What does this fold into?
Amino acid sequence: MELPNRKMDILKAVIEDYIATAVPVGSRTIARRYMSGLSAATIRNEMADLEEMGYLIQPHTSAGRIPTDKAYRLYVDRLLEIKPLGEEQNNAVREHFFRHMDEMEQVIRKTAQIISDLTQYTSLVLAPQMRRTTLRRIQLVPINREMALVVIVTDATVVKDVVIRIPEGMDNDRLDTISRMMTVRFAGHSIADVDISLMEGLERDIQQYRRFFTDLMNAMGDSILQPDWQDLVMEGAINIFNFPEYQDIKRARSFLTMLETREKLYQMLARRTKLETAITIGDENEDSDLKDCSVVTATYRVTGRPMGSIGVIGPTRMEYGHVVGVLDLIGRNLGELISLYIDE
Amino acid sequence: MELPNRKMDILKAVIEDYIATAVPVGSRTIARRYMSGLSAATIRNEMADLEEMGYLIQPHTSAGRIPTDKAYRLYVDRLLEIKPLGEEQNNAVREHFFRHMDEMEQVIRKTAQIISDLTQYTSLVLAPQMRRTTLRRIQLVPINREMALVVIVTDATVVKDVVIRIPEGMDNDRLDTISRMMTVRFAGHSIADVDISLMEGLERDIQQYRRFFTDLMNAMGDSILQPDWQDLVMEGAINIFNFPEYQDIKRARSFLTMLETREKLYQMLARRTKLETAITIGDENEDSDLKDCSVVTATYRVTGRPMGSIGVIGPTRMEYGHVVGVLDLIGRNLGELISLYIDE
DNA sequence: CGTTAGCACTCAACGAGACAGAGTGCTAAC
DNA sequence: GTTAGCACTCTGTCTCGTTGAGTGCTAACG
It folds into this structure.
C-alpha cells in the first residue's frame, strides 16, 4: 500500500496545484511546473495508475484530474507541511488579541473574525464549555419584586445569568444570605454536579423555600448544561463566494443553509473538543451536507485543560497546511488570553 | 398630480402582479387577469402614459413593464391594504411568544425567527435600547481578587454585565457597600446620565478610590451607550435565495455582504425607533448598498415608550401589506412580553 | 524495460446563426 | 375613446461547428 516516491511526488504536485487553482490539472502542467525531469507522457502513465488506485478522478474524459477525498487524506497524513505564520502576522494577532478585549463574548467573536481573515474560510469558535468549569460564586441580584437574576461565576470567568422568579415576601437581605450560602456549598463543584442534594443539611431553609430552590437548580442546570448553540460563533460565511466551485448558486445556497443549522455545527465542535487537531475531509464528515467540505478544528486549552474548539470549514480543496498553522497560533493565544481571566 | 382612477387601477394591477411573479408584466396579462372590461391595446396606451409619468419602466423594448420605486411609493402611500393575520396564525404567534422565553436574548432571537418565518424575508430585531431605560440597581459581583462583574439592572430588565478591574485590597464587603451606595445614587436616572458628578458628596470614598470610580463610570458608559450592534439580531438572510431576482450570484453576494456590516443596519434601525412604521423603497435608502432593496420597520413599545425596532429587508418587490401586518402583530406581542418583565 | 514522441480521439466551452415567443407602438377602423 | 391588426424588436433557447486542452494508445528509442 506504500506509494513509490515518484507517484507520491506527482500526487502531491497535483493536489497542490489543484488547491491553488481549482482547475483540473493535466499532465503537461505537472511536467512543466513541478517535475521538469520527466515528459508529459510519463506523467500521464503515472496519473492513470493513480486514478486506478483511487487517488485521482477525471471530471470527464479529456479533462485534467482532480484529487479524491482519499488523496487529500493521504496528503494530510503524510505530506502535510504545517505553515507557521510569519513574524509580523504573529505580532498582528497578538496585538489584536490583547487589545480591547474585556468581555468574553467579544473575545470569542473577535477570535472568529481573525481566523476568517487569516484563512479566508468560514470560521467557527466554540466558547469555553461551561460543563468543564467549576463554580466559584453564585449571586442573586434582585430585579423587581417578583424576579431575580442569578449570576454564576465560574473559574473561567465565564459568567451566565438567568432570570428566575422569586417567592413572595423574600427580601433583599434574604437573597444575599441565600447567595452566600449557595456559594459556600457549590464553590469548587463542577457545574454538572449542581443538584438539590448539595443543599442537604439546610433543612430549615429548604422547608420554607423548597419550591424556589428546585426552580433555581433547574434554571441553572437548563441554561448552562443544555447544548447551548449560542456558544457557537461563526464569521466569514460569505467567504464561500470567493471560491470558483461555489459560483454555482445552488451550491452556495446549500452551503449557507447548512451553516444555518447551528445545532449540528455546535455538536460537531463540542465532540471534537478533546482532540488536539482534527481534520475531516469530504465524505469523512458524518453530516451529509458537509460531504464536499472539509472541516479542520483545534482545541484551545485553559490552564492545561481543553475548554473549547476553534475551526474552519471550507472546500475540500483547502490549504490544510496554512489552516492548521493559523488554528494552532490562534488556539494558543486564545487559551492564554482566557487564562488571564483566571487566578489560582 | 392626481392619477385618474383607471390609471390607478392599472398601476395597482401591474404592481401586484409583479410583486407576485417577479416577471415584467405585459398589457395582455393585465387585460385578461385584472381588467376584463378592457382590451390589451387600451391597457397598452395607459401603460405608455404611466411610463412617461415615471411609474413604470421597460427593462428592454418588447418586454413587459415593471414598477419603479416611485410607483411603489405611490402604492404604499395610497393603495396599500394592510393584511391582518388569520386567527390561527395569530394564535401561533402568541403560543410561540409566551412559551419558553426566559432570557431577553432568547426573546429577541425568537422574534427575529418568527418574523422571517412569517414573511420569508430577512428580519431584523433591535433589542430594547438601553439609553431609553432608567437604572434600577447596580451590583458588583467579585470574580477573583483582581476583577469584578458589574451587573446593571434597568427598568426594562435588560441586564448588561461588564468586567472591571478592582483595586488591590478591596474586599467583598466593601464591594457590597459600594454597590448599595451606587444603587441609591443612580436609581431612577437614565443610563445616559451616568457620570462621576453623581458621586458628589461621597468625598471620602472617592478620594480613596477615585481611579476605580472613573474606571467604573467609563466601563458602564462604554459598554452600554456605545452603538452596540450586538443588540441587532438578524434571521433568514438566506431567504434571499428564494427570489428569482437574486438568482444571480453577484447580486446574492452583494446582498449578503451588505448584511454583514451590522453597524449600518444597527444605526438605521436605531434611527427609526421613534417612527411607528417606516417604509423606505430602493433609492430612498440612504445607504447605496440598499438601493434595490426595501426596508420596512416598526417600533415596539414597552409601557407606552418606544424601546426598539423590528423590521424586514427584501427586494423592492415586497409584499408590503403582509409585512406591515406581520410587523404590527409581532411588535405588539413583543412589547407586551417585555412589559411583563417590568412592574411599576 | 522505462521513457518518450506522435497521433487519433473525446469532450467542454464558446460563439454564430436561426427561431419562437412575448410584448410593444402605431395606424386605421369601429 | 376603444379596439383590431400588423410590423417590429428584443430575449431566450436551441443547434451546430470550431477550438483547445487533455487523454490513451502505439511504436520507437536508449
Observations:
- The two ends of chain A are 51 Å apart (CA to CA).
- The longest strand of chain A covers residues 305-315.
